[in-house]
Write a structure and sequence with these properties.
The complex is a heterodimer of chains A (405) and B (490). By secondary structure, chain A is α/β, with parallel strands linked by helices. Chain A folds into two domains: 31-57 and 72-210 and 223-243, no CATH class; 248-397, Nutrient germinant receptor protein C, domain 3 (GMP Synthetase, Chain A, domain 3). Chain A contains eleven helices and 15 strands. In chain A, a hairpin with a 2-residue loop joins strand 13 and strand 14. Chain B folds into three domains: 14-117, no CATH class; 147-261, no CATH class; 279-438, no CATH class. In chain B, 46% of the residues lie in helices and 12% in strands. In chain B, strands 1-2-4-5-3 form a five-stranded antiparallel β-sheet, with helices on both faces. Chain B has a five-stranded antiparallel β-sheet with strand order 6-7-9-10-8, with helices on both faces. Chain B has a two-stranded antiparallel ribbon with strand order 11-12. In chain B, a hairpin with a 5-residue loop joins strand 9 and strand 10 (256-259). Classes of the chains: A alpha/beta (405), B alpha+beta (490). The A-B interface holds A 8, 12, 15-16, 19-20, 23, 25-30, 32, 34, 36, 55, 57, 59-60, 62-67, 101, 103-104, 106, 132, 134, 163, 166 and B 305-307, 309-310, 314, 317-327, 330-331, 373-374, 379-380, 416-418, 420-421, 424, 428, 431.
Amino acid sequence: MIKKRLWIVVMIIIMLVATMSGRWSRQEPKNLAIGIAYLYEKTDEGIYSITAEIVHLSGTNESGAATGGQSGSLSIIRNFKGPTVSETVRDTEVKVEKVFFGSQNRVRFFSEELAREDGILDILDFFVRDHIADERPYLFVVKNEKPTDIFEADLGGSARLGEHIHHIASKRQDTVLTTTFVNTLKFVREYYCEGMQPVISVVEAKETEAAYKTPGMEDEPKKTELVFEGLGVMKGAKLVGLLSEREAMTYTLLREDIKGAHTSIPVGEKEIGVKLSNSRPKIKTSYENGRVKINIDLKLKLSVSENETEYDVSQYRDIKILENIANNHFRKEIESTIAKIQREYKSDIFGFGMHFHVQQKHDLWESIKEEWDDKYFAEADITVKVDSKIVFSGETREKFGVNAR
Amino acid sequence: MNEQTQAVAEAKPKKIASSAARFEKQIEEVLGKSFDVVIYRFKTVLEEAVIIYIDGMVNKDLVDRDIIKPLKLQDFNGDVNLTFKIPFIKADTFDKVLTSILDGNAVVYYNKSVYSMDVKMFEKRGVETPPGEEVNRGPKEGFTENIGTNMSMLRRKLKTTNLIFEKIVIGKQSNTVIVLTYLDNIVNRDVLDQVREKLKKINTDAILETGYLEQYLEEKPFSLFSGIGLSQKPDVVAMRLLNGKVAIMCDGTPHVLTIPELFIETIHTSEEYYSRTIQANITRFLKILALALSILTPGVAVAIITFHQEMLPFTFLITLIQATQGTPLTEASELFFLAIMFELLKEAGLRMPKIIGASITIVGGLVLGETAMRAGIVGAPSVIFVAIASVASLAVTNLNEFGIVYRFIFLFLGSIMGILGISVGIVIMLTQLVSTEAFGIPILATFNKEEVKDSFIRYPLKEIEFRPSTVVKYNLRRSRLKNEKGESIL
C-alpha cells in the first residue's frame, strides 16, 4: 500500500521535472507589450528598421472593463534597429519595459524598397523559425515613399492600425475584386508550391479631402486614409511588380472564391452594375513542340444590382446580350492582364505551372520546371473562355421609371 | 478488550429480584441517580406492583389508562394477560429489563415477572423535504430521525416479503439501533456479507450518525470516494435497493447509507427517472458539464492566461490586460485567493443562522467580489472564472470534496505548467478513479452494453430492461416490455 503510494508520488515528481523544464514561458498578461502591426524597412546603411505598433492600455475605468477609445492614444509606435531581425528584436528588450509578445500580431508591412531589392526571405525565415511569431498576420507592401506614413492614417472606426487591417482583411476577402489579402501562411504555402509564385497585398496611405470642416478652423490638418488596391507580384521572395486594381481582378477571379463582389460592366457608353460570384476556373494545359498551351474556362454568376442601360433584364433576349457583353469584357481583362504579367514580370502567380505539373507527365515537368516562369509560362499560349450567367435581375424588371408615365 | 469489559462479559446474568420492594431497590441502585426515571410502586388487590419508565419517552395517558388503572381495579384477578390492554413481552434477565427501560418502554413488575410494554412517545421532527435533495417532480418526503418512521416509509414503497430489515445494535454507550436493509432476491450477497461482517466487528462507544459508519466501513479514508452513497429520501433508497444495493439506516439520523455507489451515480438524481427522457438527458448533460466546469475552469483559465496568450481572442486579451493592469497579484494567486474565499463563504453560509446567512451571501458576493475588484486587489476576469466554477460546483453537491480537491490540484498544475499541467492532472485524476473500488466493485464500471443505458445518458425507461450487472449478480431482469421479436408490447 505504502509502496504503491510512494511509486505514484515518484511518478508525479518525474513527470513534473520532465515536463516543467520546458515550460518557462509563463508570463502574466499585464506584463506583455502586444505588438499588432510591424513595418519592416532597411536603411541605407543596410540595417533593419522595424517600426511596431504596440497596444497601449491606459488603465482601467471604475468597473474594470475596457475603456474603449476615451483616454487618448490606444497604441504607441516605437522604432527598433539592428543588423538582423533577431538583433532588432533584442533592441526591443532595452527600449520597452514590458515583454514583447508577437503571437497576437495582425499585420506585417514591408517597404516597397525592401521587398524589391532585398526580398523578404530573411524576415520570413525569422517568422517561421521563431516560436512566438504567428502565421496569421497579413503581409503588405507599402507603396508610400515614406512607409511610416501608414501609421498616421485615419482609421475610421477602429482604434488601432493592426485591428483595422485585420478586420478589413478577414471580413472582406470574398467581396473584394480589386485586391487579395495574403496572410503569412498563404504566402509561405504559395512560396513553396512548385509551379506557382506568391503574391502580396498592397497598401497605400493616400491623402484625402477632409470630409468636413470644423467651423472657425482655417487650416484643417490633411488626413490620409489607407487604400487597398492592386497586388504585388512576387518572384520568389522578391517583389517584381505591382498590379493595378483592374489587373488584380484577374488574379482574384482566377484564384479566390468571390461571393457577391460589386463591379460594373461597360455597355456602350453606359454601365451595368453587377454582384459577381465565381467558381474556381477549369484550367487545361497541354504541351506541343516545346510550347505550353493553357485553356482557362471561367464560370461567373452575375446578379444585376444597377442598370443604366436600356436593356430590359427581365427579357431572355436582353439577358443573353448582356451576358455576351460581360463575357467579352472579362475575357479581355483577363487576357490583357495575363499577357502583361507574361511579358513584364515573368512570374506565374496564377499557378498554371501547378496545373501543368498535375496534368502532364512528371518527367516533363521535372525537365522544364527550372525555366517555367521565365520561358514556358512567359511564352505560353493562353486562351480564355468566360461563361457568365445572369442569375438574378433584381427586384424590378425594366429600368426604373421607363414605363412610369 | 480492557479488564473492565472482560469482567462485564464474564459476569453471570443478574437475576430479577423476587419481590416488588426488592425489585424497586434493585432498579434504584442502577437508575436511581437520574431523576427522569419514574419508579412507582403501588398496591393492587392482590400483590404489589412496580412500574418503571422514563419520563418524556412514554405516552403517560396510555400508561395510566391501560396499565396502572386496570391493575388497580377491584376486580383484578391476577391474570395479566387479560389486564394489560397493550401487547407486552416478558423480560427474563435484569439486563434485558434495563435495556427495555432505556429503549423507552414501560416495564411492570408483578408477581415475580417483568412485563415490557411499548408505549413509546417522544418528541420528534415531522416528515419534511430534506434540504439538498429537493425535487420538482417526485415525492417530497424525507427520512426523519426516528428509525421506526423511516422503516415504515420504506416498507410503504416496497411492499414485498423480500424487503429485509436486519437489526444490529452498535455502541457500548449508545446502543444505537442500526438497520441493515436489502431486497433478499436482488442484493449482491458479497457486498451484503462484507458489510454485515464489518458492522458486527465495530466495537465503539457510540454511533451518533451514519457518518460514523461510513468512515468505519470505507476502505481508504484518504480516497476521494468512499464508494458509499447517501440519501435522505425513501424513494431514492428504494430505487437503490432495487439496483441490488444494501442500505444502512441508523436510529437518530435521517441520512441513509447505500452501498456500493458507483462514480456516475453520484451525479444522478431521482428526478431524472421521473421526468421524460429528453428532460432527464438535458439534466445529466448539464451536470456533467457542471462537473467539468467546477473542476477545470480556474485551472484551464490560469493555464491559458499565463502560458498560452495566443489562444485568447485579441479583444479578450486586451480586456484582460486592462482589468488586471492595476492589480498587484499574479493571475494564479488571484484565482487561489478567490477560490479559497468562495469555499470560506460557502462554509460560513452553511453554519450561520438562516437570516444572517442571507446577509453573508450578500456581503460575500457583493462586498468581497465587487469591492475587491474595485479596490484593485483582483481583476474582474478572475472573479468570473471562480464564479463559474463555484456555481457549477453547486450543481453537483454530491461530489463536493472531489470537486474542491481537484479544483485546487488543477489550479496548481495549470499555474506551474500550463495546458500541459492540465493534461497531467487529468491523467492523475483518471488513474485514481479507475483504480478505486467500492466493496470489490470498480467505481467506473458502468460501461457495458446494458449499464451504459443509464450512465452519462439515460435511455427511455422502456429500453432499460436490466439492472446494473456490475452490482446485481442474479435476478437481473427489471422489466419485460418487449416480445420475442424485440418489439415493444406497450
